[in-house]
Structure formats: C-alpha cells, structure tokens
Amino acid sequence: MHSQKAVLLARQAGSPQAVFGLARFLAAVPTGSQQTAGISTSSTAHAAEAAPAAAAAAAVGPAELPAGFPADLAAATEGPAALYTERVRSGLYRPDALQQVTVSRLQTVYQDLREAYPPPQRRSGLTLVDHVETKQTRSSWFDGISMLLRSQSGLQGSAGPHGQRFHVRGLYMYGGVGCGKTMLMDMLVEAAPREFQVERVHFHDFMLDIHSRLRHVKEEADPLKHVADSVAETIKVLALDELFVTDVADAMILHRLFGRLWDKGLTLVGTSNRAPDALYEGGLQRQLFLPFIHRLKVWA
C-alpha cells in the first residue's frame, strides 16, 4: 500500500528527485513488503537460476537415444513410433523393452491403416482439354465390371479410397495397472490422421451408448445389426480403453456386435487388464461369450 502511494506521489511530482527517492524507498523495503507490493522475489530468483540451465540445455541439443533402442522405432518419421521415440529422446518417457515391442506392433497397425486409407489427393482444379478422354477404354470398362462384381460378393471390409474394402488387423494390449497400455494406445490416436476416422472411448461408455441406441431402434427387424452398421458408417478405428466384461447383458451381445463390426472392416485397438481367455471368466452363460474371444484373437 505504501509503495503504491509512493508511486502515485512520484508521478504527480514528476521531478528527478522524487523518482530517485522512490527508488531508494523500494530498495529499502524488506522482502515480505516487496511480496505484499506485488514483487515476487522468489520467482525472480528462480528465473535467474533457471536461465543458465536453459541456456546449457539449448547448447547441448536433443538428448541421444539409449543404447539398444530399436532401430525401426528410431527411424520412424510418423505414427506412434515417431512420437514414442521423440519422448524417450526428450526424457519424458523412460525406455521400456515391453513398451518398445508394443509400439512396434502399433506402428504396424498404423502403417497398414495408412496403406488402406491414404490421404485424399487434392485436385488442382485445372483441366487440360487435350488429355480428356472422349470414350471409355477397355480397361476402365473391365475395372468397372470387376468392381461391381466385388461389391455384390459381400466379401469386403470397410470402404477404401476407390470403393474397395479392407480388413486391417488391430491390437489387443493387456497387462497390469500402470504398465503404459493406455498411454501407448493414445499415441496411436494422437498420430492418426483424419481419414482413419478414429473413435477413442472407454469400454463402459461405449456399451452404454450401444444399449441406448438399441432402445431407439426396437422397431427394426434386427436392432443389433442396425446399430452395428450405424457405428461402422462413422468409425474405421475403434480405440477401446479398459475392456472388462462383467455385465451379462454386454456379454450376450458382444459376439454379434463386434462380429458385424469386423465384417464391416472396423479395426479394434483395445486395452485391458485381462488376457483374452480370462475375459468374463466365471460369468453366466460364458459359453455364449467364447465366440467373441475367438474372433478377438483373430482380428486383434
């Protein structure tokens, strides 16, 4: 309060003597009074101490990767492997052999998805009249008939850039609490471009949404098939966190639900504290749940 009055008086006086007197007054104020006046001496000291350290870190440059770090991860320029490598290099993550194996498999999923769903080609908008075809060639006619036959066969997965459909195998990560499963899955989500159409959701919330949708389509001949198709229309990659089945209502529909989603080409990347064979262990009518486990092993 005193310092604020002194500043006001000095401004009103406008003389060099007043300004000099104000400087001597502030210099004589104890540390506690300076903090009351809004001057943080501790933060100033910390900033002064941090400046040489920051300068030294900048002079050293990026840290080297630890010895034995996988070469395939270090060479990655995109995807979860590139994110993981950069964060290990910066010291944000500690090197972990099991995590590195998992990241390598996530990178494979990412590369398969990149091949299946390449970035859209941007057209320039220019048309060269001399190169415009005026009639359909034999090859393009054959390609059209071939695509029509494939589309009627029903043997394809999710739609690709030219109408063809793909099945990209996902990944099911399981282990104890704190081993980094969710962290690694989230790196895939972070690295995924828009064309992957990734949906990241907790398993419990996902199933609540499924049951809610089912209640709204009771009039459909096959409500579960209808809901699965609607999910597959907007999601190509489902990042499902903490897959843990305890509810019998969930267990009874998971096989048909995910069976349809996988048939439509959905890629599942999930985390769980349990191995696939231990899911819904001891649950009611578990024999009806076992086909889901079998397909989970095939597609994740």
Model description:
A four-stranded parallel sheet has the order 3-6-5-4, with helices on both faces. Helix 6 (79-90) packs antiparallel against helix 7, helix 7 runs parallel beside helix 9 (181-191) and helix 12 runs parallel beside helix 13 (290-299). The protein is α/β, with parallel strands linked by helices. It has 13 helices and six strands.
Dominant shape: globular
State the helix count: 13
Query: Regions with pLDDT < 50 over 5+ consecutive residues?
Result: 1-51, 53-61, 130-164
- Fraction of residues in helix: 55-70%
Largest sheet features = 4 strands, parallel
Spatial order of strands in the largest sheet: 3-6-5-4
User: Can you write the helix and strand succession as a string?
Assistant: HHHHHHHHEEEHEHHEHEH
Care to count the β-strands? 6
Q: What is the terminal separation in angstroms?
A: 67 Å
| Category from helices, strands and their pairing | alpha/beta
Query: Overall mean pLDDT score?
Result: 77
Mind telling me the C-alpha Rg?
30 Å
Task: Give the DSSP E fraction (strand runs of 2 or more residues).
Answer: 5-15%
Give the secondary structure arrangement, pairings included:
Layout: H1 2-13, H2 16-28, H3 31-36, H4 41-60, H5 71-74, H6 79-90, H7 97-116, H8 138-153, E1 158-159, E2 165-166, E3 171-174, H9 181-191, E4 198-202, H10 203-216, H11 223-234, E5 237-241, H12 248-263, E6 267-272, H13 290-299
Parallel strand pairs: 3-6, 4-5, 5-6
Antiparallel strand pairs: 1-2
Helix pairs in contact: 1-2, 6-7, 6-9, 7-9, 11-12, 12-13
